[in-house]
Amino acid sequence: MAWRDVPLGRWLRAVGIAAAPLALAFIVLAGLGLLAPGTAALTWFGLTVISATAIHWLLGDLLRTKSQLEKLARGGEIEVQARRTRIGRELTQSLQRLARESGQRTASLVSDHDGLERALDALPGPVLLLNEGHKVVRANRASKNLLGGELEGRDLAAVLRNPDVVAALEAAARSGSGQDVAFTLQAPVRRHFSARIEPLSQHAADGTAIVLALVDMTAVRLADQMRADFVANASHEIRTPLATLSGYIETLSGPARDDAEARRRFLAIMARHAERMTRLVEDLLSLSRIEMNEHTAPTERVELAALLATVVDNLEWRARERPATIERDIEAGLPPLMGDAGDLTQLFQNLVDNAIKYGREGGRVRIRAWRETSGPDESAGEASKDADIMVSIADEGDGIARQHLPRLTERFYRIDTARSRELGGTGLGLAIVKHIASRHRAALTIDSEVGKGSIFTLRFAHIPTESSDGPAGL
Ligand code: ADP
């Protein structure tokens, strides 16, 4: 720092403060005759020059330290500069230590902040941090995915557009305790949420006063709804034949007691209804058993050609009744499938039974099984040994209109309920198929052309086993 960097006024004031008492002392000494006036003036002048220089150095060092401190406070880097005084050098050392420590502290705060930000983003549920005025201070990735990108700075009322959430925020602010509120977002698709509002006892440095965490309850609500619908549907399905049976029992024990012809007819109808109830209960039991096992992969090695032959044998009488012809086209040398023979028999039986039921009278039901390579080397011609196994069941029935296809595997979903009942259907066949397929990691696709027929295809993914390369028929 040059001479001119020390403000003149300040320096002169400091020199004046030091020189004035000195001058007084020399005047007294000269007045008492202890010093000659000339000597006193000269000594005073000399001492004043020395102290003026020392004061200049000290002031310079102090002012430099001050400007470095201000720079540090603004977040800048400090420069190492030479100091004239010892205290100046000590101040520089302290300043450097302060700069080092504050740098380390800032770095650790930044990394803590980054870590928290990343942790907030890693949370699967949407979390919003709000200030006292209910404006979004921070939003994690899940909330941006749900509510749109630019959330910071926006009012929560505009973001969620839900008066219940705003009311709960106000209640939380009033009471200082957490609140839970359920609400529904209508767009882009209807979704149900539960919001947990937690006010902070002390506001965070960034102004966060409230934490709002959202939990998507749509799947839970849907599952509850499905369970309620299922119980209602199952009760309805059982109530109808039960009511019919009670009606006939009353008739037979009352007005038709002595009518042999009516008794014969009514008993046949009652037997049909009892059979339907039995089938329904059997299907319900199968469904619940399959659902329970759905997450344990089957471990049996199933020979598909033999299994499909059994299915055809079991349903031959149904085909004769309809009438319909069952054809089989099974590729030779299919490797065994990892599966559950009982489940797979039921799966194919349900599909072949449907093909007979809903197929054309006198039509053909075609069962095909072959290997198919999925992925880029599909065009390789020869199906390789690690190909998927495909099984399809095709009929020549009326087909299924496109709008029904996505719902066909729902429990009790039927295109024509009266026709399904008349043909002895329970409405559970395809739901059972779907669950068995899912347990076997198989994909079900349904292709149908109205007026021509339907094809139900299953793709069993290739699962490598120690001996799946060996000869078929194990
Ligand atoms: P259901 O016991 O009624 O046959 P499913 O679950 O097996 O119950 O089938 C559900 C509905 O899907 C049936 O009621 C029928 O409307 C339709 N469906 C199933 N398979 C076929 C098919 N091969 N051709 C036409 N419609 C079918």
Can you walk me through this structure?
This protein has 4 domains: 103 residues, no CATH class; 94 residues, Beta-Lactamase (2-Layer Sandwich); 72 residues, Signal transduction histidine kinase, dimerisation/phosphotransfer (DHp) domain (Helix Hairpins), CATH 1.10.287; 172 residues, Heat Shock Protein 90 (2-Layer Sandwich). Helices cover 52% and strands 16% of the residues. It has 12 helices and 12 strands. The chain has a 5-stranded antiparallel beta sheet with strand order 2-1-5-4-3, sandwiched between helices. A 5-stranded mixed beta sheet has the order 7-9-10-12-11, covered by helices on one side. A hairpin with a 5-residue loop joins strand 3 and strand 4. Bound molecules: adenosine-5'-diphosphate (ADP).
Describe the secondary structure blueprint for this structure.
Elements: H1 8-31, H2 37-73, H3 86-122, E1 127-130, E2 136-139, H4 141-147, H5 156-160, H6 163-175, E3 179-185, E4 191-199, E5 210-216, H7 218-253, H8 260-293, E6 300-302, H9 304-321, E7 325-330, E8 337-339, H10 341-358, E9 364-372, E10 388-394, H11 417-422, H12 429-439, E11 442-449, E12 453-460
Parallel strand pairs: 7-9
Antiparallel strand pairs: 1-2, 1-5, 3-4, 4-5, 6-8, 9-10, 10-12, 11-12
Helix pairs in contact: 1-2, 2-3, 7-8, 8-12, 9-10, 10-12
The protein binds adenosine-5'-diphosphate (ADP).
